[in-house]
Amino acid sequence: MAPMGIRLSPLGVAVFCLLGVGVIYHLYAGVISSRIAGFRQKKTVDLRDLLALSIEASIQGGREVKRIREDDTLEERSKGKTKEGASEKLTLGDLNSHRKMYYLIKNTYPYLQVNSEEHDSSDGEATIWTRNIPDNVLNKIPGSKMVPSESVTVWIDPLDATQEYTENLRKYVTTMVCVAVNGDPVIGVIHKPFTGYTAWGMVGQGANVGPRGSYNANNPKVIVSRSHSGKVKGFIQQAFGNNTEIIPAGGAGYKVLALLDPSDDEYEKADMYVHVTYIKKWDICAGNAILKALGGHMTTLKGEEIDYSGSESNTGGLLASIKIDHKKLVSRLPPWDENK
User: Which reaction does it catalyse (predicted)?
Assistant: First the structure.
């Protein structure tokens, strides 16, 4: 039966149906087109918000790290060997911190690329950021800093210095978040779970930590990884002399803070940080961003900037310094075969 009680021939019925299909098609096509257009519109993200979120994520992860260590429920196991042949530890502190940090960021910004040292097969956590921005961030960064979301890569280290964590060497342990824009480290957060201290920096905007008053480039104190301090000793002595003081320490976050003037007193004071073997970007990105925010440098041993997009690996070693002529330091380093 056609509308208005009008009878149609079979041909008329067919024409009427085709017209109806055409109308429906154009309606759906319009809806789909608008959705595609909306999808194609570039999303942006506020770097100030990302800094505040990174601070909160590092603190939430740190609570888990501290709780599990104090409860002595580490459930320690090995997840394989490092390139140097040492056992790479994994604990419940690593995993629980990862879940808190990763899902807080992904639940807030599901379209951002987030790279974490750890992975798990859980269904995630329904954690939500309160969008509270700390006063010290508001004081340093009064306005929004918008960037395209596709330019952003987030690197998180849910527990830096796991080996030291299992040995109960708490001062070396940190949680870290870094935000890179087009591969450049822009935001860095390093949190110490057992003291509650948090250092942060944002390139071009400021930091809540600063450099020390002076550094010694001629007879430097050099901080290195305690896991292979013997391997790097000859390299450093060849560059700076046999009497160079070498400070073995755990955790890349701790080593960067040892170059600065943090408000707690758990740090050896170093003039530079040297690493000669393979290292992952989530270990070093936050420290790189903080140093860069303060006018310092972190490069490969050849003086090349480290790109924090793409692969998780940094195979060129690193040299970190602040308030010292970094190029001159690089020129003093002997050749290094990264495959040694």
Answer: a myo-inositol phosphate + H2O = myo-inositol + phosphate
CA 213 to chain CA centroid, nearest Å: 28
Tell me whether residue 120 is annotated as binding: no
Token pair, residue 263, equals: 């408000």
Is residue 74 within 8 A of residue 93, CB to CB? The reply is yes
307 marked among binding-site residues: no
**What value does the mean pLDDT take over residues 175-193?**
98
pTM for the model stands at 0.86
pLDDT of residue 4: 44
SS3 12: helix
Q: How far apart are CA 123 and CA 117, in angstroms?
A: 18
Statement: residue 274 has pLDDT above 80: yes
Per-residue model confidence as pLDDT tens digits over 150-178: 999 999 999 999 999 999 999 999 999 99
Question: Is position 283 annotated in a ligand binding site?
Answer: yes
Q: What is the pLDDT of residue 17?
A: 47
Alpha-carbon distances, residue 158 vs 89, 165, 242, 274 (angstroms): 13, 12, 37, 23
Could you tell me which residues are beta bridge partners of residue 114? 154
Residue 289: name the closest of 210, 187, 182 by CA.
187
For residue 301, say whether it is annotated as part of any ligand binding site.
no
Q: How far is CA 142 from the centre of its chain?
A: 23
